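task queued by scheduler; priority normal; single chain, no ligands, no partner chains; default sampling; output format set to structure tokens
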Amino acid sequence: MKRSLIPLNALRVFDAAARSLSFTRAADELAVTPAAVGQQIRALEETLGVILFRRTAKGLELTPEASRALPHLRAGFSAFEESVSALQEGQGALRLSLGCARGAIRHWLLPRLKGWLDENPEASVQILALDAPVDFAQANLDLALSFGPAPDAEGVFGRQLAEEVLVTVAAPGGASRALGWRSMEGPALALPDAGQALDWAIAGLGEARVPLTLAASALAAGTIVETGERSPTEEAYWLCAPAPQWKSAKVKALVDRLLA
């Protein structure tokens, strides 16, 4: 059975006029003119085929039909308000599911997320390590940090962290062994991801060629130094999510904190 459209705005006007039994006071409450209130009431009466008010010597009074319907109408408005509150609570609640390129969890996400968690001790966050571009059609995530080319999945919007470059780094006085996280030739120690390659470089176990985004903090702290030329890369880190999720208050707040 097809549902008919409910004239919610006109019903709100009716509720306000019924409470005050005055179009003028209802207009003040709703920040409209008395004429607009009268027009909405007449249109509602025509739509419903029911007279809602009668004018008497003492002023407006409700018809019996309107009086009987009013408690049910107000109960419906209360239910609407509870439903809207439940929706807002779910969107505003600090429960987040984040995907993150595996190598960036410790060296990029953790330091920035820690500040947000300190500010929101009641937050609940689930982290999913990503080894490939995230498929939002399969993964139930609020936001993801991916590494690679710009997201091209339909409906997914990405925000690039920076124009990425690769840097070769090692601890001062550390070993010269190559620490790789992709296919390499020659003597090397192969590691699962860029983050672990950077960890081993910081520990003095060799040289790692990693994205500057990951190495920036350790370079600034002096725990590693650059040992080679920088080189550009077409890949980058991207914060990404389906376009509607960028409108979520909790996603907006987290992104602002991560990029601060």
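post-processing summary
- The chain has a mean pLDDT of 88.
- The chain has eight helices and 13 strands.
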